[in-house]
Specification:
The chain is built from twelve helices and 13 strands. The mean pLDDT is 95. Bound molecules: pyridoxal-5'-phosphate.
């Protein structure tokens, strides 16, 4: 089964083998070595200075990292501004509300860009805003938000970006220093091609040091994790097999040429799928330049409708993804993460043609 959903991904043979390694105790030096290796490799994906940046590892899905980032770094004094143009922006607002963080939310339509003029106005009106939380790749629509321009704007108002990079880390460009990023949450099971259930936050060390007191969570406090991990230790029992899998996946990323090579590889697949689906008469939700290379959303063909398209493709070995919230029942999504080959993409396009052809038989066959 070829998974074209945005994680979990088809695992490579090396990552699958790593999951089956013998158990080790997390209080032994061999675990500390594994943890250190992963933390350095994650900092190395975007060539960050380990003196200034820390990778903090968590067992949990991507949302655990986003929640840990927001509640550990939003200071007790000062307001958080959350920008939302999709499901994951809304989820950040939900996290902030459930922890009663001082925050305001600017919401935009799910297929529109974040309106930077409105952000600028809000920052100018409220000098207590210290952090701006934003989703880099809003996976619900496939939009890559322009956090480069946003970061420059925030720098002028002395606010740093807290980025949900769960579906862009290792697949899209992220300039941590240049874009005024304070922290970025991500997970192992998307563009890093490891197993789901492990996540992390790359945080500027000076942001970690002035977290709120008292801390807002026992289990999701980044400062606690970072302190233990810097000492070669861990506060709780980690998901060790997932650490092994991420370690193997990071080795593969390096061997394949790093994030830039992965970005080019996704770009090739995205372009091919775009060309192939356009040729079949399907319409993309966003212009190519607004979309990430990781995933594209398409208007649902009627007929056959999402269920029939999904089921027809699944019977042919491919899993596509519906859309949540405001886009539900209107679009379907195709991601190209994981160990998917160029010939899988060609077979996928042929399968779409086949499923649509069963609904719209050629005129001479009617
Ligand atoms: C997948 C994803 C998440 C996290 O979802 P989980 O189900 O908790 O892994 C968060 N943000 C974005 C943008 C995502 O794509």
């Amino acid at each position: 089964m070829i998974l074209l959903n945005p994680g979990p991904v088809v695992l490579s043979a090396a990552v699958r083998a790593a999951l089956a390694k013998p158990a080790i105790c997390h209080r032994e030096p061999e675990f500390a070595d594994l943890q250190d290796r992963i933390r350095s490799a994650l900092i190395g994906v975007y060539d960050l200075d380990p003196e200034r940046w820390a990778a903090v590892l968590l067992s949990g899905s991507g949302t655990a990292a986003v929640e840990a980032m927001l509640i550990s770094l939003a200071p007790a004094a000062g307001r958080l501004l959350i920008l939302s143009n999709g499901t994951y922006g809304e989820r950040m607002a939900q996290i902030a509300r459930s922890h009663t963080l001082e925050c305001s939310v600017l919401s935009f339509s799910w297929h529109d860009a974040v309106d930077l003029q409105q952000v600028e106005q809000r920052l100018a009106e409220d000098s207590t805003i210290r952090h701006v939380a934003v989703v880099h790749h809003e996976t619900s629509s496939g939009r890559r938000n322009d956090i480069e321009t946003l970061g420059a704007l925030c720098r002028r108002f002395d606010a740093s970006l807290l980025v949900d990079g769960v579906s862009s880390f290792a697949g899209e460009r992220l300039d941590f220093e240049g874009w005024n990023i304070g922290a970025c949450a991500a997970s192992a099971g998307k563009c890093l091609h490891a197993a789901p259930g492990m996540a992390f936050v790359i945080a500027r060390r000076d942001q970690l040091s002035d977290g709120p007191s008292p801390q807002r969570s026992v289990y999701l406090d980044l400062n606690t994790y970072c302190r233990h991990q810097d000492a070669g230790d861990t506060p709780f029992t980690p998901a060790v097999p997932l650490f092994y899998a991420l370690d193997a996946a990071l080795d593969e990323l390096r061997a394949q040429g790093g994030w830039e090579a992965r970005h080019r590889h996704y770009r090739r697949y995205a372009d091919r799928i775009r060309q192939g689906l356009l040729a079949l008469g399907l319409q993309p939700l966003l212009a190519a330049g607004d979309s990430s290379v990781v995933l594209q959303a398409w208007h649902q063909p009627e007929p056959p409708g999402y269920e029939a398209l999904h089921d027809g493709l699944k019977a042919r070995g491919f899993v596509i993804y519906g859309a949540p919230g405001a886009l539900a029942r209107r679009v379907f999504r195709v991601a190209t993460l994981g160990a998917v080959s160029g010939s899988d993409i060609e077979r996928f396009l042929a399968a779409v043609d086949n499923v649509l052809g069963a609904v719209h038989p050629p005129a001479d066959a009617r």
